[in-house]
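Suppose you are handed a protein chain with no further information: no name, no annotation, nothing but its sequence. What can you learn? This example shows the usual starting point.
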Amino acid sequence: MKGVVLRHPLSSRIMHFVNMVCWYILFLTGAAVYFRLVSGAEAAMLMNVHILAGLVLTVTVVSYLLIAPDRVFLFLQEVLNWDRDTLAWWKNFGGYPYRFLKGTKLYKYLERFWFAKPGAPPQSKYNAGQKLLGITVVFSLAVLGLTGWMLFFFRQALGKDGVWLFFNAHVWIAILVTLFVTFVHVPLVVINWPDFVSMFRIGSGTVPVEWAIEHNPKWFERDVVEVVESRKD
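A reasonable first move is to predict its three-dimensional structure. Written in structure tokens, the prediction is:
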């Protein structure tokens, strides 16, 4: 079957892009100040950039919730739906260890273990790893937004213990999630090149039908095929 199917609507792509840019600006400016890579006027300037990026990200997220609540609902419905195939994906991490290690000397040793087996159970629009990432990003955006703005506007009201708790939650959640996204999510997305292109290219956020059937057969059968058939009727 040839052709393309829509995977990432324009609103979702804009949200993803703004989130990505603001996130790394926030991380780099915050890390530079936290680890004392800069001081004095430079630190103050970076914190101003940090606050501005936080404001842009907050406005974007709130606007997305108000303008495209249907997309938010569908996304949450998808990432929170963990069926038997979702859980089975974790048995061998969707076959990614096999894809990375096959043909190497290390794989000859690891192939006896369950996590190095090839193949993966059929997945919906997002596989199990992407669902975990989606939940993580939603949670971290909520916590980082809450802790960040509480520290900015209500620092005195939080008290010493509250400031310590909110500050450390803000810092270490940001660090851990950024490391996870940078060194796990990004490489795996680049490997799945059609999905990467559909998110970032100028134009429609489509993927080839063949790719959709191979990687997300449950999504294709449930959402894509049914839409096509209903149009024919």
